[in-house]
Amino acid sequence: MTIYQTLLGADFDRLHPKLQQRYALPLDTAFVATGVMQTIQSGAVWMRPFYYLAAYMRFLFPESGTNIPFTIRNTCHALPNGELEVLWERTFYFPQQTRYFDARMTIDPVKKVVKDYLGSPALFYADLHFAVTQEGRLVIRSGLQRFGKVRIPKWLEGRVTVEEGYDDQKEVFTIHVFIHNPLLGRLMMYAGEFTPQSS
């Protein structure tokens, strides 16, 4: 049983069957998929220095675009202390630049949150709250956030909403991610579709 099954408990069975397969993630077996982001939008132009720094840490990036090819790779492995961790590796192939968005996830079974360590090195941290919709989609929302060990004030947070589903007619996974700040507005948004490949 991987971290998402442990976290969601009985709600895991309410996910669309394809999402259950995707998030079962057997130990040391990768889920690999390719797809296209119909749209990717970053934030304001004046924030470019922040985006370039974040891109160096394989986190956010300054590019926007349409119909951007991408790949995603998720791998679950055991840490030395026996805790399970899932590595997320997302790669976006812009015409002039390849960008990355990495994360490492474990769970806090007491607080019932996913502990999300963003980037490489992982300087950003966020609590993630997982929920299942009536239609069987997965919705993820961010909570407490830190930079290093310092708590980020709420007015500086990048508030995250993710919705992942499966389109039975097109036989593709769907993904929509929106990151915004109460003062700065949109920090990043992307939406697209993907299909699994051989690991």
Explain what you see:
This protein is mainly beta. It has one domain (3-197): Calycin beta-barrel core domain (Lipocalin), CATH 2.40.128. It is built from 3 helices and 11 strands. A 10-stranded antiparallel beta barrel has the order 1-2-3-4-5-6-7-9-10-11. The longest helix has 9 residues, at 48-56. The protein is globular. The model has no long low-confidence stretch (mean pLDDT 95).
Question: What key attributes describe this structure?
Answer:
199 residues; Lipocalin; 3 helices; 11 strands; single chain; DUF4166 domain-containing protein; mainly beta; 54% strand; ten-stranded antiparallel beta barrel
Terminal CA distance: 20 Å
Query: Which runs of at least 5 residues are low in confidence (pLDDT < 50)?
Result: none
User: Helix/strand-derived class?
Assistant: mainly beta
Strand content: over 45%
**What is the architecture at the second tier of CATH?**
Beta Barrel
Rg from alpha-carbon coordinates: 16 Å
User: How many separate helices?
Assistant: 3
Helix content: 10-25%
CATH fold-level topology? Lipocalin
Helices and strands in order, then pairings?
Layout: H1 3-8, H2 17-24, E1 30-42, H3 48-56, E2 65-78, E3 84-93, E4 98-108, E5 113-118, E6 124-132, E7 138-147, E8 150-151, E9 159-167, E10 172-181, E11 185-197
